[in-house]
Amino acid sequence: MQNLITFIGENMSMIYIVILSIFVGVEVIGKVPSVLHTPLMSGANAIHGVVIIGSIIVMLNTEADNILLLSLGFVAVVLGTLNVVGGFVVTDRMLEMFKKKPKK
What we know:
By secondary structure, the protein is mainly alpha-helical. It has two domains: 1-31; 34-96. The protein is built from five helices and no strands. α3 crosses α5 (67-97). The termini are far apart. The mean pLDDT is 83.
């Protein structure tokens, strides 16, 4: 518990920045019209490839006996992959709406 209090005390400015960026992000996303929300989110979901690469690097640099980091890395890889695939599926469905329908 003392380590946590020391960490918070040493990194207070970083914690303030994270909290303020959360509020700014919520405000920005809240102002996006619903028509633009899906294309923006599908592109943002594809950025989660960075999360996948980062979690793989963390897992590669972790000792084999550290089960907590390995399991968190595995969960990050799985959730990041689902998010990337979901982003591409949504983008594909949006692009299908703009294709011309074949005439009968």
